[in-house]
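Methods — Computational structure assignment.
A single polypeptide chain was analysed. Its primary sequence is given first, followed by the predicted tertiary structure written as structure tokens.
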Amino acid sequence: MEASPLAQAGTIGKETAVRKGLIFLLVVLVQLAAGASPLKVMLDFLPNPNHIPLYAAQVQGFFSEEGIEVEIMPPADPSDPAKLAAARVVDLALTPQMNYLIAKAAGLPLISVGALIDGALGGLLSLADFGIEELSDLRGRKVGYSLAPLEPVLWRTMLSTVGVKPGEFELVNVGMSTVAALLSGKVDAIGAFRNFELIKVELLGKKAVFFPQEDYGVPNTYEILIVANPELLQERAREVRGFLTALARGIAFTLERPEAAFGAFLSLYPDRDDELHRRSFAATLPLYAEGARHDDADRWAGMQDFLYQNGLVDRTFPLEELYTTEFLSPP
């Protein structure tokens, strides 16, 4: 008896699925036989809760299920990742959107392919002990920073929104010892991350006062993007797509099972099992980029215009030259 059209369709569907599976397996085997190198991914900083979805994807085997091997590495210098991706020393690099736009305007061949952190983490941090309640209370005070020229622009922008002019406060370069400078009273406020320095100060028993940068004139930003040299996207398109698919799964896993995701991170970095890292993770959890997406056109335009107007970049680009969604799964 002849099979029904429905049964025939089911059989064809199964055959198609099997065929696709065999083709995928063949591609992976060919790459392995050819000695395909791992996809080298450089972090923006030392491993920390910002990166938990990445490590969750690694521990849960999501990269392997996409047929790729991923090598995650911290940078020797936080200013290196975008430069090394542009030079093809690494394949993908994590970097803040502002840093990426500055690097691209400086001529580095880069494009953004996805995001890890969807939103700003930075702002100004002070102490209630200093009599700071409102941002305008920093008039006549000292504000510490680490990185010029970006940070001074951010803090001047924030203070200008509450009527504090540049000559009405002092910017002090305190190097990387920002928290120590704040606690010692060397400065009255510092540039800080809400998911790290803020928590660190609170754990020391201080009443912290934090002013988010996006509430005071600084456009919202993608705190961590994934960027690459455009040539890589032509040569290793399948692997980049597989990486972003696995990362999106890692983000979804982290949002759905945060304790398991944190446990995956601790399995690789057991020395991070402390209150600081647990609270940092809790503060970061709402900001992971679902689907690893980075395609808010208004956010891209707003940040690029902000940097241009403040002299941090000397040219702008069409949005299609700044980011691509080609390698992301549909929303």
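Note: The chain has two domains: 36-119+222-322, 122-215.
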